[in-house]
Amino acid sequence: MSAHPTFEQMWAELAPIGRSATTGGYFRQPYTAAELECRAWFTEQAVRRGLRTEVDGNGTLLAWWQPEGAAGPAVLTGSHLDSVVDGGAYDGPLGVVSAFAALDRLVADGLAPARPLVVAAFPEEEGSRFGVACLGSRLATGVLSGDDAARLQDADGTSLLDAMASAGVAPDLGPAAWLSEIGVYVELHIEQGRDLVHRDAAVGLGSGIWPHGRYRFDFTGEANHAGTTHMEDRRDPMLTYAMTALAANKQARLSGNRATFGRVAVEPNGTNAVPSRVSAWLDARAEDETALSTLVTGLSRQATERAERDRTGLQITAESVSGAVAFDEGLTSRLATHEGREPWPVIPTAAGHDAGILSTAGIPTAMLFVRNPTGISHSPAEHASTQDCLAGVDALIEVLERLLTAPADGSP
Amino acid sequence: MSAHPTFEQMWAELAPIGRSATTGGYFRQPYTAAELECRAWFTEQAVRRGLRTEVDGNGTLLAWWQPEGAAGPAVLTGSHLDSVVDGGAYDGPLGVVSAFAALDRLVADGLAPARPLVVAAFPEEEGSRFGVACLGSRLATGVLSGDDAARLQDADGTSLLDAMASAGVAPDLGPAAWLSEIGVYVELHIEQGRDLVHRDAAVGLGSGIWPHGRYRFDFTGEANHAGTTHMEDRRDPMLTYAMTALAANKQARLSGNRATFGRVAVEPNGTNAVPSRVSAWLDARAEDETALSTLVTGLSRQATERAERDRTGLQITAESVSGAVAFDEGLTSRLATHEGREPWPVIPTAAGHDAGILSTAGIPTAMLFVRNPTGISHSPAEHASTQDCLAGVDALIEVLERLLTAPADGSP
Question: In this structure, is residue B343 part of a structural domain?
């Protein structure tokens, strides 16, 4: 038996941090007080287990388990601790808490790992503060340059560098040296959909991630008095935006893909003023890259035509675009089956993950999903049963044991 | 010659206060630092002219000129000093600065007024901080109760009472005692439209104000992951809002009225989250009350039908509704003509003013408008030429002289 807190105890420790009493949702934007409390919790868990801790120059938290005899490329597991604005409890923390719980069981079972195990928490996975999702893994892999990241600001104009420094994290943005020591990555995550419900399984593996992108649409017009300005004399960017939001939904519906305008900023945002500017962010995802390109190109053309009709301006900026990800197929199919249990289903996802970034960068990667009864995510209503969470921990224990005792070529 | 600053000097004193270096627009929301500086400027102008100053419990600034021999119902003039968010320089301050300039000329000309003159600056005319336009005059006249106003909060949750108290204004919200001493009100204002341009006149009088209202539309849905949630499974309030914004524009265009959605608040407002709530404010104005009611009722029906289709919720709250205003017809027609000049044109307006509230409350009221070459208002681009502003001051001097020397029944 481990003397360390159980999964349920760790879960209870994290539960109140950054939770809104009004909505029940989580506000754990990177380097805010709540997220710093989560980071301190991570370090405390690592230290009490005697793990070697490390914070890289991108703000990624790492905890190394390397008992005598463990050498060569390490097995990386974990997820993230930050949340979307008013998000759920499971998206991110489930993978981190499960990692510590799985490690405790491996130690208690007396496992002698052939390779080191690293537990990680990547910063700003959601992109909810600085606008770039998977910020930590993009920097670690060089997908995003340190110079580009140094220019990032939050909505209040605070730079990423200042936010890190004031949180006591010495920023040194760019490719991470530790990545060269990683042989394989496994991320456990709550499912953001209902595929596992339909397949009647508590746990599944990910086949890959749909390509997706975030595009900022800046619609510009002319501020004017909402009462006295004739409708015909207006250049009202709200109208161009409204048509674009409806068109995005329709196009995604008809093509079986996803398009969402969930974030809007209006200037001057006064009841009695025609707006001078409406900025809106498109989140678009599709089953393959051709479909994504067709969706975004078609919508851009419709919006541009409407802007001409409204005599408004439109500028479209791709803030982040991620290609399709296929997780390591050999690894995933080997992990899917194991003696003594049913094979785990292998399902795709339309959500981005640090696992996708690492996979694209050439790290053999697999994802474990835990069943989500409603499929709801990025919302206070996000939920998984404790029983299914513990089934996820068991699955992670099995996977880590196989990987930690596998030969150095990584095949479990 | 007056020893007091000229119109142009006073204008130059106010010009930098609350002006954004980025947009050139004004941010003079009530009880913010910029607006408090404007209020201090008002008091300084009054004190240097030896006027008796008064701040009522609603935050209205008053400056009384009552030389010996002046008695009975007073002549009130003025306007407001607060602005919309990122507004123009003229909307409000033009009437206040013109009032002091006109008073200086009357004193310099040796006028012996039969009645007192009061210069006023009403607070929160724009409703840009606490959401109720013409807040000062609504309270003074009892149109809005002190209890209701005490519940008002700004977007940050600061109550009107706290904002006033922290600005050093002792709140005592409710009907104003001084109003019983007022016999007539004249408000000078920049025109918010181009009627005077078309009539080739620097100055005109107002016939009345279109009825108008502000309505909050709260669209509610279900927050969810923007990537993983099937389009068919969503309850996305952004779509219901977008359709409503387009419908509002179309209805107003077809009926020759005005409808604007210029203010929007989205929750959680994250790029990768389907919103749980979109609140949007409709500003609607029409030529008469039947037309306004038809417009708002029709739009509410369309929005409700769409909400059913989108499986979203919709609650519509009328935040403030003002009936049609007809300014005092006899007074206006008498003021329109005077020997030695062309008659002033008499024009309607779709903009709300404290003059409308006082007129509806039974105070004989007239409005003077100053030409606006572009018609643009509630925008940094709002402008009137200095020559036209000085023509406005001359017009106000003429009107005040006629009113201050008229018999007590008020007919100039």
Answer: yes
